[in-house]
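Below is how a single chain appears once it has passed through the pipeline. First comes the sequence as given, then the structure the pipeline wrote out for it. We keep one example in the README because the format questions we get most often are answered faster by looking than by reading.
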Amino acid sequence: MLTQQDIEQINAYGLSSEKVEKQINYFKNGFPSLDIIQPAKIGSGIVKMDAEQEEHYVKQYQDACHSKKIVKFVPASGAATRMFKDLFVFLEKYPLSNVSFEDFIALHGLKSVAALMKDIKKAAFYHELAELYTHDGDDIEKHIADKDYIDIVKKILLPEGLGYGSLPKGLISFHKYPKKARKAAEEQLVEGAMYAVGSSRDVNIHFTVSPEHEVLFDALVRSVRPEVEKEFHIKLDASYSTQKKSTDTIAVDMDNAPFRKDDGSLVFRPGGHGALIENLNTIDADIIFIKNIDNVVPDRLKEPTVVSKQALAGLLLEIQEMTHRYRRVLDMGIMEESMKPLEEFVEGTLCHGLPSAYATSTFEEKKEYMRGFLNRPIRVCGMVKNEGEPGGGPFWVRDIDGSVSLQIVESAQIDLSDPDKKAIFDASTHFNPVDLVCAVRDYQGKKIDLDLYIDHNAGFISKKSMSGKDLKALELPGLWNGAMSRWITVFVEVPIETFNPVKTVNDLLRPAHQGE
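Resulting structure:
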């Protein structure tokens, strides 16, 4: 199936023909569905802290953070194209129509466009728009009064204006302040300065970016760094990485044969956000916070997020300390009767049901299993009550060895044609807002290789098109799904106020994104 020319192209990507053949087999055979057995809920897989516990864990983190290396890891490579989807439709179709603006909006179901134009002055980027018009000797107010919305939309989306249609979310102005507007990446810097301060008062922010935007991110950081450092009395360091070409995956046609360009070469596509486990694997720190680029709020609303993040980190440090203590005990020698407290810790605190064969294993086999389990990376994941948001949620999942663990599961990973599994999925009460705090060093202080804890059978297959032809694309196991499937995992309910994503430009008009 693969020619010598194909193999040379594969090697140039940093891939191997064996890996590509395995990917093609996934297209042919599909990925196994996850065996969800029940949703994780408060008291059954999800911890709910009371005020006293929260205060305890916040203090625990604050007492320890000054001696830790802390990194905030922010996936920020995705373009904001989908954020402006309705505006692109309006820009394409409205000039060709012969109807009024109101009739066009009703005909195409684009109420979001009308709402944005009505409240455009509430958008943090309005002042930038107005300056563009002024620079050209024009007046935006006149275009608004004349309902010349096409010109305004062009100024928002196209390169000759703000160019937002081709920029990532991190470089879009999200919030308005008295003297300026802050872009999403800048809000991440400020937020990091409020809870991710480590030794020597260093604040380390790592952005994953697309290659063409790295220089823009760096320019933004350089321009705001002095102000942030002065306000919070910290030293700010921003670093960047791009998705590795070796994480791209092969595309196939609808018959599962390699999809080829007109010149006969293979087509590879980005492997999705699961590819970022390779970027995360390069981060060597005591504590790693992970948060999506678009989930930020203005300063007046940051306190719940700051407190929540610190509480999660405090719990993480406690779990890590207990895990490492048990691991050292195993090395020193443990009496058989002392295994009971360890098993209760693993099954109770760490929410990991032991595999079927464990009960009949010898004492030495049990110790060896526990050594391996306790040496895994650890994540504490915030969960919010599900209020209808699409995406993954927390579930108890049974593995093929009979063990049971907590997992963040996407609907695509479940056989929803099975009425029992669908009922379990529908009974979920919480949602994953991508709010993680991670520890990636073992009990000896060595960096853990995260690649060893990926469930490679937890990928996704989707239908795409290229040059008018249908194709199938393969996404690697999601960053917080299969890519972290083998991690020690604890779920904690966090306040809904900490979850304010910006999926469309109109979300910036919501109260949670209005500035001071």
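Residues 216 and 370 are 47 Å apart (CA to CA).

See the next section for the split statistics.
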